[in-house]
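Q: What changes when flavin-adenine dinucleotide is included in the input?
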Amino acid sequence: MKIDWLIIGAGFTGSVLAERIASQLGQKVLLVEQRHHIAGNCYDYYNEQGILVHQYGPHIFHTNAQYVWDYLAQFTPWRSYYHQVLGSLDGKLVPIPFNLNSLYALFPPRYAEQLAQKLIETYGFNVKVPILKIRESAKSQDLEFLANYIYEKVFHGYTLKQWDLKPEELNASVTARVPIYISRDDRYFQDKFQGLPQYGYTNLFRSLLNNHNIKMLLNTRYQEVIEEIQYNKLIFTGPIDEFFEHMYGNLPYRSLDFKFIHTEQEQHQPVGTINYPNEYTYTRTTEFKHLTGQRTYGSTYIEEYPQPYRHGENIPYYPIPKEEYRALSQKYQKEAEKLQGRVLFAGRLADYQYYNMDQAVARALNLFEKEILSSP
Ligand code: FAD
Ligand code: UDP
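A: The predicted holo structure follows.
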């Protein structure tokens, strides 16, 4: 078998690159995927009860990059959806990211007013401030109290569960993903474009890969077939340390166990996701019907139980944003550079970067434009 491009991994990174190469260059691609399905961690399917669920955890698409949104819109109509999250704090369900509404829900009105005033005076209105920054900069007694309260009740327990680390032990960008929002906007994201593919992610991927220049090999680890395939260039979207046979040691990842629960109730919870920073061993529950807008009897929700990653036993979902691991991942990036463009690496696992879906798509589109389209 002779092909132009061998691509490992059928997630967003590998599939977008396959689509670009096949449609823009008219070259032949073989996409090799170890799982029985396409779509990587975005894979969704209808469960026994007929509910559309996300097998590897809830996925909400959001981006400020119009070109990413427009590119994917060629392959799916979008369902508009604004994600909402409530956190269980002190026996109450309050908006997350923590905002002025959370403040009023938790504290007596006069005190909430006082704290809100202090926040607005210090940082401004409609401003997002990461918790670690508020903790550092809080000068007044009120703000210090509030910073410590939010740190303890929202971030400390959740982050310990999710990463087995304290917020300050991780790169500050991790907790900055969910900053304190000095506003009354209860949406989890404020991006310009937000939604889900109207007929699901797997369907979007089917459409992406529906090209006569793309062939697929599912249920196959690339190591099983690479010797038998004649290809010109290789793109790898799996874990970069695996590609180099762990020559500098294992890169650490965080994994998750998922528990799906079906209920005969019409609705299990009031919004898409409830976070439990301080209770239970799971971090959050997400009810799929909120995300997908599906109207059926019964409902399915998912609990997420963070786990250490055990090589070969569970799935490396999250690279761990921490300086020492970044340094280790750079050693692998240096090895990648030595291959001088014959092998390209991209994606959440190959770049060892905590990408959202839109960032993975942007990375693939940019790699295609800058390194594939322009190379001989
Ligand atoms: P992946 O989707 O991981 O694809 C890599 C593929 O390579 C996998 O299918 C894997 O099986 C395959 N592979 C690996 N090794 C081999 C091998 N040896 N041989 C063959 N195949 C191999 N992003 C958002 O924007 N919004 C969200 O709401 C969101 N929620 C998330 C929730 C969870 C629980 C997780 C874990 C992630 C979430 N993300 C979300 C991030 C999103 O999943 C990623 O950005 C995206 O999946 C990255 O795509 P990728 O192609 O780089 O990686
Ligand atoms: N986080 C937290 N409490 C929350 C929500 C988030 O401590 O209620 C922290 C936690 O460290 C988490 C990070 O912020 O891992 C990023 O949250 P996000 O919801 O973006 O995580 P993801 O959806 O990627 O798992």
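Observations recorded in class: Residues 96-182 form one domain.
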